[in-house]
Amino acid sequence: MAYCQLNGINLTLGLVCLLGFAWSNALPTFDGVGNAEFDEQSLRSEDNEDMDQIVGGVAAAAGELPFQAALILGGSLCGGTLISPSIILTAAHCLYGKSQTAVSTFTVWVNTLALSGSTAGAVKSGVTKFVIHPNYVPSTNDNDIALMKLASPITNVKLATLPTSSACAPISTYAGASAVIAGWGTTSSGGSISQTLLKATVNVLDNTVCKQQYSTLTDNMICAAAPGKDTCQGDSGGPMLVNGVQVGITSFGIGCANPNYAGVYTRVTRYLSWISSTSATM
């Protein structure tokens, strides 16, 4: 099987794709005005002294990442991507432990640089339901992928481009590729959320390298790193992009920009079939 790119998730083939993206999977409690608190029980002990942000990032440009979603999930912050007019792709750990009735408290913003949604052209939506991958393993973050159904379709915003199965290119592990990560994560541990969408460039590593860092790493994951650059709390569920194609979803990591540990992402090419079939029935 080979992969090429496709806008949205109108997939007619039996596609298998997974999103792999890396950061520490503690979610900041978001008060809606830019302040964040952390549930210490969910933080990795290695994270407590680290800066929690898109480390080494710069402000994204207007129109650069219109599909990037800010997810305010009843008081916690995550990222996501608009992959069809009605579907947001994110990380399972962002929604794990939340009930379906909690969706009434969820808010989604897309096409915005400002977390507040004050960017011209920003679009806001509610959520009607979510689906976590049935094989998600919280202890290892394997299969860390989920979908959210929007309350109303968003038809005027560019969709994220996912890999897709076809004969147009050989399968790629993306090892050695340059990738873009992005999010509104906090700028210091327990501190303030970034009010502006930040991005950074990292390098995708071969999984054999990452397995030396993480004993629980699986083929459903993809990792990336660069000196002084990484994702962190509040960036969970956001995208990792190679040549504009989303190949990963921010998942977990030890520390932020820790030189000994890469960020780990859900590998999108492992979940294309699940994304397509689940989206069709939501």
From TrEMBL:
| Localisation | Secreted
Q: Where does the signal peptide begin and end?
A: 1-26
Q: Give the domain of life.
A: Eukaryota
Query: One of this protein's GO BP terms?
Result: protein processing
This protein's GO CC annotations: extracellular region
Keyword list (alphabetical) reads:
Disulfide bond, Hydrolase, Protease, Secreted, Serine protease, Signal
**Ranges where the Peptidase S1 domain occurs:** 54-280
Q: Which InterPro entries match?
A: Peptidase_S1 (IPR050430), Peptidase_S1_PA (IPR009003), Peptidase_S1_PA_chymotrypsin (IPR043504), Peptidase_S1A (IPR001314), Trypsin_dom (IPR001254), TRYPSIN_HIS (IPR018114), TRYPSIN_SER (IPR033116)
Q: Name one GO molecular function term.
A: serine-type endopeptidase activity
Q: What does the similarity note say?
A: Belongs to the peptidase S1 family.
Q: Which PANTHER family match?
A: AT26814P-RELATED, POLYSERASE-RELATED
Name this protein carries in UniProt: Peptidase S1 domain-containing protein
